[in-house]
Amino acid sequence: MTSVAVVVLDTLRKDVFDEYFSWLPGVYFENAWSTANYTVPVHASLCTGKYPSDAGFHATSEQF
After folding, report:
1. Positive or negative torsion for Cα 26, 27, 30, 31
2. CA–CA distance, 26 with 39 (Å, rounded to integer)
3. Where residue 60 falls among pLDDT bands split at 50, 70, 90?
């Protein structure tokens, strides 16, 4: 069985991550894309596996 850990670090630039977390073993992705440009819809996507609009989060949502 394969173990998987997802590390979610909000507002941390990749260069800072590389500098301070180089000791962390695993696979690093150089080309990763986000489903949105701010935290709430991205976390909704991460937790539901859906795009923010499909999960009910969009610019006019009252959750913000």
Report:
1. negative
2. 24
3. low
* pTM greater than the 0.70 cutoff: no
Which residue's structure tokens are 């969009």?
58
DSSP of 14-59: HHHHHHH-TTS-S---SS---SSSSHHHHHHHHHHSS-HHHHT--T
The answer to whether 42 touches 51, Cβ cutoff 8 Å, is no
Q: How far is CA 13 from CA 17, 19, 20, 29, 44, in A?
A: 6, 10, 11, 14, 21
Distance of alpha carbon 36 from alpha carbon 54, whole angstroms: 13
